[in-house]
Amino acid sequence: MSDRPHVTLEDVARTAEVSLATASRALNGTTRVRDDLRDRVLAAAAELAYTPNAHAQALAGASRRTVGVICHDISDPYFAAVTRGVMRVADRNGLLVMLAGTFADPDRELAYVSTLRAQRASAIVLTGSAFEDRAWERAMAAELDPYRRGGGRVAVVTRHRSLKADTVAPENRAGARAMAEAMHRLGHRRFAVVAGPARLTTVADRVAGFRDGLAGLGVELSERDVFEGSFDRDGGFRAAEELLDAGHKATCVLTASDVMAVGVVAALRTAGVSVPDDVSVTGFDDVPLVRDLTPPLTTVALPLERLGEEAMELALDTSAGGGGARGRVRRLAGEVLLRESTAKPRRRRRR
């Protein structure tokens, strides 16, 4: 066996000093790439002795039975549940699912879409949030529009403003508004928000919902009340540390996802702050693990597996104008579930 390390498409892109998406397009020839960029990619591939994945090429020959599912983070329980729904419908239809995780990298997402086009997958399902980025929107549309014209099917979960694809849309804004109103009814008047990157449409919609709900009740949420971190447990932990360091007087922390809320609760506990005796904490999604936290997490419950099921059903359904210019939209509401991580605020001597 050779001791030469395996060369990846990322290695080629790095050597050629281009994005993953450009490297993929240059090598698979699915869309036109500028001559100078293509020459750089081909030269880098030759220099590194890059060989495309033989298994992926073999799958392309069976493309009519293959669908691609692209998510941000396969370790996130939210995406695990949504993907389970996708795979359940795919299995009923005898389809093979290829799953890709992008780590919320826009270029990586474009590269995966380009690769799935090259493999002639019969459908592509995007389960991760879109990006509030016009350049990314244009680049993604440039990948998906010719794919659809060639007979490919596309469905997305959450708001993707410019893609005009069939969409399963959880009511993120309405759910966040309902949570803010529920916490206000509980007696809270001082709020902080812990959120993921604002460039993600899911985050933007949920933070806007928190603002809407509180503004309608006469409570202003300023920029100083919003603490941003990576959209995961560690991001929630670090954002909560910033909140504590700032001496914020919130009695309730509204968190934009359950996994971030897990980090928030951990950071508060580490600092000796009791949940909910000192500060109430809410989440969003209702992933299974939050029911078993100590204390169990108040959250906006979304039908996660159903999101995936309906996205896959839309991708496979060619009736009723499916795949048309505007795309169909199925909206799924969330439900506020009150658990022990929230309580009425009480007067206390702060640390």
UniProtKB/TrEMBL annotation:
Keywords: DNA-binding, Transcription, Transcription regulation. It comes from the Bacteria. InterPro entries: HTH_LacI, LacI/GalR-like_sensor, Lambda_DNA-bd_dom_sf, Peripla_BP_I. SMART domains: HTH_LACI. The keyword Transcription applies. It holds the Pfam family LacI. Residues 7-61 form the HTH lacI-type domain. PANTHER family: LACI-RELATED TRANSCRIPTIONAL REPRESSOR (PTHR30146), LACTOSE OPERON REPRESSOR (PTHR30146:SF153). This is LacI family transcriptional regulator.
